[in-house]
Every structure is written in C-alpha cells, then in structure tokens.
Amino acid sequence: MKNNDKQALMSVMTAVGMERILSTEHLCPPQTCEVQKDHNKDEWIASKIMERRFVPSHLTSVAWEGFNFVGHEIKIVESTDLFGATVWPSALVLCYFLENHGKQLGLEDKHIIEIGSGTGLVSIVASLLGAKVIATDLQDLIGNLQFNVVRNTKLKCKHSPQVKELTWGSNLEEKFPKSSLNYDYILAADVVYNHPYLNELLVTFDHLCREKTTILWAMRFRKENTLLQNTFFNNFQKHFDMEVIYDLPSLSIILYKARRRCNLTK
Length: 266
What we know:
By secondary structure, the chain is α/β, with parallel strands linked by helices. The protein has a single domain, classed as 3-Layer(aba) Sandwich (Rossmann fold), CATH 3.40.50.150. Helices cover 34% and strands 21% of the residues. It has helices spanning 3-15, 39-50, 89-105, 121-128, 139-153, 172-175, 198-208, 226-236, and strands spanning 53-54, 65-69, 72-76, 111-115, 132-137, 162-165, 185-189, 214-220, 240-248, 253-260. A hairpin with a 4-residue loop joins strand 9 and strand 10 (253-260). The chain starts with a helix and ends in a 6-residue tail after the last strand.
C-alpha cells in the first residue's frame, strides 16, 4: 500500500476508534492452511468493515458502541474489566460475512450456536438474519450478554435468540446432550488467545459439531501467541477440514470454514 493510501486508511480507522486492531503485525497461520494474498480485496473489505462502526453523538448514562448491520443500529454495552465483554475486530469480520452471505448460507431458520459470544454482536446479527440462535459464554458474562441480545433483537427477529451458560469442556453432555444437537452452524470469533483452556475449546467444538455442521471461525493472529496458536491449529486440523474464506492481513484476521473430519472421542 502506498504511504498516502495507508495514512488515509489509518485516519478512517482512528476516527471510528479502531486503531487497536492494527497494533499487531499480521502473522501467517500454519502452512497447511491455504491463504489468499489479494491485498486489494483485503483493504476493500477492511474499509467496509470500518464503516459499520459508529459512536454515540452525545454522552449517555451507559457507555455503548454502535454497529450498523442488517439494516439495524445495534448498540452494544461493553465491559473493559472482562476480556470477553469487549467487541473484538474478529467479531466484525464474522458479522460482515454473515450479512453479505446470509442467503448463500441459507441462514434463515437454521440452527446456530455461538461459542464465546462475549457481548453478543455476532449472535445478534445472525438472529436478525432469521436464524435460530443460541448465544453462549461463561457465567460472569451472561448478564451483559443477555442485556445486549434482548436490547437489540426484541420484536425484530423471526426467532427470539436464547442465551445459555457454556464453560468449555465442562458438563457438555449434561447441558448440551448429543442426542438433541442439530446445529447447522457453529460461530466463533477470537476464541483462541492466551488462555489455558484451548484443549477444552477443542473438546467443545468436537462435542457440538455433528457430521453436517459447519464451523465459521474468525481468528486474529497475535505475535505474542504464535506457539500457542500454531499448536491449537495443528490439533484442530487433525479433526476438522479447514478452508480460508477471508484473509485480511491488515487486520491480522483470517475467517475460516471448517467441517468435521473425525471424532476426538474415537
């Protein structure tokens, strides 16, 4: 990218409070993943994603961030005290993909579960697109997640989304019995970072994913977590076939589609 173009793009990102997404140099994922290198497409998609974010025009009693998706202004309350209660750029990438490919994916009336829902933005967008959605996260995040989901979907969706507690790898059969699972899609945004529960995350993917389930997973690559990320990818690819949908080097984000290859429990 030319210097003047780069400065212009940075100005746009700063204006909407997105400068944090460029703080990390893009890292290449494991070589087993085929990655497209179309930089023009990268810059175009990145700029379109930036346009979806807006900030309040005046101070309010409760701080929130705004996002334009599916013809709706979505207002999200975050919590800076909790890592999972922040809207991360990977969520915006996944929302953008769902909005632009919802008909192709046939999202209307499809059964969807999101793991690590955080603030609920991805689940909200999927619900507004007509899907039957379950948003999940840890107990500490459920209150804020429920608030955001209800606030932005009540009387607006074909199917009212559900919010459920899900601790990765814990009591999965009790809370989500395999006999009742029929998810068409599993959604995940930025669930792999520096935390000690990556094995549990893989077990959770395996438990929830049926033979015909498709995983849509937006991943931000962080320089400081290279070994951790590569280890998880190597383990994940032993059990799931992966395909790159978007590769966005300027955001250090790749969006993957994955399908089951075999069961971990076998």
